[in-house]
Amino acid sequence: MSPRPSWGRWFGRPGRSLTRRLIWLASAWIIVALMLTGWMLTSQYQESALRRLGNELGLAIDDVVLATAAGPDGLSVAEIKDAPTLRGLSGKYWMVGEVDAGGGVRVLARSPSLAGESLFVARELPDRLSQARGDMITYNDRGILPDGSQPLRIGASLKSLPGREAPLVFMAGIDRAQINTDTRQFATFTWTALLILGIGLVIAVFLQVQIGLRPLFDLRNEIADVRKGRTARIAHAYPTEIQPLAEQVNRLLDHNQEVVERQRTHVGNLAHALKTPLSVMLAEAGADDGALADIVRRQSEVMKGQVDHHLRRARAAARAAHGLGERTPVAEVIDELAVMLERVFQSKDVEIDWRAPDELAFLGERQDLQEILGNLMENACKWSGRRVRVSAGANGLGQMIAVVEDDGPGLPADQREGVLKRGTRLDEDAPGSGLGLSIVDDLTRAYGGRLTLAASDLGGLKAVLELPAAEA
Question: Exposed, middle or buried, 101 (CB in 10 Å: 0-12/13-18/19+)?
Answer without folding.
Answer: exposed
